[in-house]
Specification:
By secondary structure, the protein is α+β, with helices and mostly antiparallel strands. It has helices at residues 25-35, 51-64, 76-90; strands spanning 42-44, 66-71, 93-98, 101-105.
């Protein structure tokens, strides 16, 4: 059963998670509220977004669905590029970015842990 407000890839696509997921502003606001109390799960340093960082982010999103990431040691343009690259590499949604901290969400199809309100 599909949850209203989510758009998934058509059948035959390899990604069963958040492909093409669009969140309403109400859903984004709810998730940002949940993410406020979280501590950063992933710290990115001077090396930037490496394959190891991407693998760790995928694992953390699989376990938690909603994670906070702190990106240190880079200028604003490099940080923005790295955060966007991380979202694209993990097929997650970048919910919020404030300073050096970003919030990512990736819904699990098999066993969702966060119930978000309808659009």
């Amino acid at each position: 059963m599909r949850t209203p407000g989510f758009r998934f890839k058509p059948r035959g696509c390899s990604n069963l998670y958040n492909a093409g997921m669009e969140l309403s502003e109400r859903q984004r606001k709810y998730l940002r509220g949940l993410g406020h109390a979280l501590n950063p799960v992933l710290l990115i340093g001077n090396a930037g977004v490496t394959p190891a960082v991407i693998a760790e982010a995928k694992r953390a999103l699989q376990d938690h669905e909603l994670i906070k990431v702190k990106f240190r040691g880079a200028e604003r343009e490099a940080r923005d590029t790295g955060l966007a690259e991380l979202a694209a590499s993990t097929d997650s949604v970048l919910l919020q970015r404030i300073g050096h901290t970003a919030l990512y969400y990736k819904r699990r199809i098999d066993r969702p842990g966060i119930v978000i309100p309808d659009a």
